[in-house]
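Mods, move this if it's the wrong board.
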Amino acid sequence: MIVASAFEVIPRTLAQNSGADVVRQLTKLRQNHSTPKGVYMGIDGTTGEVVDMKEANIWDPAAVKIQTIKTAIEVSCMLLRIDDIVSGIKKEKSAKGQSQMEQPDAETVQ
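Not the wrong board. Structure tokens:
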């Protein structure tokens, strides 16, 4: 589901930039994509309407889409790794803080 919502950024941005009703156009686009006939449907960046990209003679090379998907997945993985590192650092700091608090101070022992 997360990847699907990430893919919606492109038509959402096109609809917003063209001044269209974003929710309505994305709903139409999802509806069209749910049928085999609606495979080529997309957002016209000029009008903001849902149109058949094949009829409008708008073609997007597959190489661009493939690279975009690869980059998005790499960035997601990198963010997850960074989150794990930050979480690990926080755990180490809290563990060190607890161990220092548990050990009696040398001055209080004497």
